Amino acid sequence: MGHQEMLQILSVLAFVILFLSGIIAVISIINYKKFDISLKFLTIYFVVAFIFEAVSLYLARNGINNLFLFHIYAIIEFSLLVVFFSNLIYSQQAKKRIYVFMVTGILFLIADSLFIQGITVFNSYGLFFVSATVLAMSILFFKMLLDKCEFGLSYERHKWIIFGIFITHAVSIIILFFSNAISGFEKSNQYILWILRSVLVIVAKLLIGLAYLRNFGNRKLI
C-alpha cells in the first residue's frame, strides 16, 4: 500500500472519529437532565472535545497551524476530567486534595505553554501529564469498583464510559512516550502506527456511545 492510500485511510478515519465524537456529544446533551453531577461535567467535556476535533481538523486540512489548540484543550480536558473523577469520590477530604492537585496541574500546563514548549509547539509534556493523570484516576476508579462497596454499586453504569476514556488516553500516552523513536520510523511505518491509533480511538468512542445508549436510552446497565 502506497503513502497516498495510507493518507486517504487516515483522512477517512479522522472523519469517522469526528462523526462519533459528534454522536457522543449529541447523546450526552439529549440525556443531560438525567445525568448525575459527574456525567454533567463529562457532557461538557464531550461537547468541548467534539468542537476541538472539528476545528483542529479544519485547520489542518487548510494548512493552518493548529498546535495552539492543543495547549488550550489540554487545560480544559485536564480540568473537566479531574472534576468528573472527583465527583466519583465521596470523601470531602479526598475532593479537597484532588482540587489542590487540579490547580497545581493547571499551573504546570500554563507554564509549559508559556515558558517550556511554547504555544506554537506541540505540547507533548502537557499532554503526557494529562493522559497520565486520566489513566491513574481511571485505574483508581476500577479498583474501587472491584471492591464491591457502595461506590461500586452506585457507579456501575460509568464503567464502560470510563473504559473508553482509558483506552483513548492509553493510546495517546504510548504515542507520546515513544514519539522520538516513532519519528525515526520510515514514513510507511509511521502511517501504519497512526492508522492503528485511529482504529483504537474509534473502538473507544464506540464503547462510550454504546454505553450511553444502553444506560440511558434503554435504562439498562452494560
Descriptive key words:
disordered C terminus, about 220 residues, mainly alpha
Explain how this protein is built.
The protein contains nine helices and no strands. The protein is an all-alpha fold.
Average pLDDT confidence is: 88
Oligomeric state of shown chains: single chain
Distance between the termini: 39 Å
- Classify the secondary structure makeup into a structural class: mainly alpha
Strand content: under 5%
What is the topological layout?
Layout: H1 3-30, H2 37-61, H3 67-86, H4 92-116, H5 124-146, H6 150-154, H7 159-177, H8 179-183, H9 187-217
Q: Could you give a short description of this structure?
A:
The chain has nine helices and no strands.
